[in-house]
């Protein structure tokens, strides 16, 4: 049985089976990247529900694993060299799990490079920009009277949607075959619905994106991962 006692987080979110990979998460666009990747790769894992409340993500227990106080985070009891490893940042987790399993990162070095570039694109562009758009359209920023901040993110969201729509014009998946890059990108496209921002970014102008999202959401592993952990405890 693996010993995870060196990770203080396990004293609050106690593993039932320490031999399994431990996922600390919540079903946000970033959170579900990890759960979908785990479902797609078939790695045994145990999930712990960490809400976005300060009591959870800013607790000493969670900060001991992720000082950046954001979900998701993982502990792999069978890390490099057989030693446990803790990781945070959803993109880093995708890359790690892809390397560990040899899956969803492309068939060769060139394909892997393309998958990696699209994960980086999502992490540096699509996620942050759509998140800020959501703040100004649905969250606290909608009360700001100055239209310029919101318009800045509307314009950038449209640009990013054009980028991904262009890449998908002649293929089903962003890097030809289904990969970790799709797991990074598709949940953020789906978030536009939650943010009630589809109309403002002209979602209907990109019919290929809805087809792409439908393909993604139809995958059995995605259906499970999108609800892992449950939003309600």
UniProtKB/TrEMBL annotation:
Protein name, entry field: Glutathione S-transferase N-terminal domain-containing protein
Gene3D superfamilies: 1.20.1050.10, Glutaredoxin (3.40.30.10)
Organism: Jannaschia ovalis
Classification of source organism: Bacteria, Pseudomonadati, Pseudomonadota, Alphaproteobacteria, Rhodobacterales
Family matches, as SUPFAM superfamilies: GST C-terminal domain-like, Thioredoxin-like
UniProt cross-references to InterPro entries, sorted A to Z: Glutathione-S-Trfase_C-like, Glutathione-S-Trfase_C_sf, Glutathione_S-Trfase, Glutathione_S-Trfase_N, Thioredoxin-like_sf
Domain GST N-terminal: from-to ranges: 18-105
Domain of life, per lineage: Bacteria
Domain GST C-terminal, chain residue ranges per copy: 108-233
Family matches, as Pfam families: GST_C_2, GST_N
């Amino acid at each position: 049985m693996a010993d995870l006692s060196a990770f203080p987080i396990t004293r609050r979110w106690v593993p039932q089976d320490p031999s399994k990979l431990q996922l600390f998460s919540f079903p946000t666009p970033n959170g579900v990247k990890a759960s979908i990747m785990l479902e797609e790769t078939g790695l045994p894992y145990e999930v712990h529900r960490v809400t976005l409340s300060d009591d959870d993500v800013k607790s000493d227990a969670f900060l001991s694993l992720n000082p950046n106080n954001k979900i998701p985070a993982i502990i792999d009891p069978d890390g490099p060299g057989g030693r446990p490893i803790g990781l945070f940042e959803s993109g880093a987790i995708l890359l790690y799990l892809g390397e560990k399993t040899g899956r969803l990162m492309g068939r060769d070095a060139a394909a892997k490079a393309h998958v990696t570039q699209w994960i980086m694109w999502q992490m540096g562009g699509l996620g942050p920009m759509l998140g800020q758009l959501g703040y100004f359209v649905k969250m606290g920023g909608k009360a700001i009277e100055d239209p310029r901040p919101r318009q800045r993110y509307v314009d950038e969201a449209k640009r990013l949607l054009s980028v991904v729509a262009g890449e998908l014009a002649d293929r089903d998946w962003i890097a030809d075959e289904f990969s970790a890059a799709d797991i990074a990108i598709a949940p953020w496209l789906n978030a536009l619905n939650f943010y009630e921002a589809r109309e403002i970014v002209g979602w209907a102008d990109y019919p290929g994106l809805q087809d792409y999202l439908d393909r993604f959401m139809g995958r059995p592993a995605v259906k499970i991962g999108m609800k892992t952990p449950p939003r309600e405890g």
